[in-house]
Amino acid sequence: MFLQALFMVPWMVVVLRIAGVRRALAHAAVLGPRSLDEEADVVRAAQRVVAAAARHGVVRGSCLPTSLALQRLLGRRGIATRLRIGASTDAGAFSAHAWVEWRGRPLIDGAGVRDRFHAFGDLPGPALPRER
Fold first, then answer.
1. What is the pLDDT of residues 46-57, one digit of tens each?
2. Which end of the chain has fewer CB atoms at under 10 Å, N or C?
3. Half-sphere exposure (Cβ direction) of 20: Cα atoms closer than 13 Å
4. Is residue 128 part of a domain?
């Protein structure tokens, strides 16, 4: 999975630059069935390897390509996620951030990301299954 993540982060950088956000979103999400326990194991492993690939890969990934890579990696394993993009004006300075949520839980960044950034709302993407 780490080798896939090493490839996926730079790939999403290229997709974003060439095709734009809309096509990158469509490219990142794929759905399929999986048990909750299996999903949790895969999610934990995927967020570790994608974060490592973004930090140590040939191309360092910012939050958006890293998030799209994580969404794609999980989607290819049948795990539905939601991409979030939010903004903050902490200390008067505007900043934006992208992150992935699985079953309402932020991945890689942790739960505090929702306190720091106000999400813009739902982005176009696949229909998510109801929580079990």
1. 999 999 888 888
2. C
3. 2
4. no
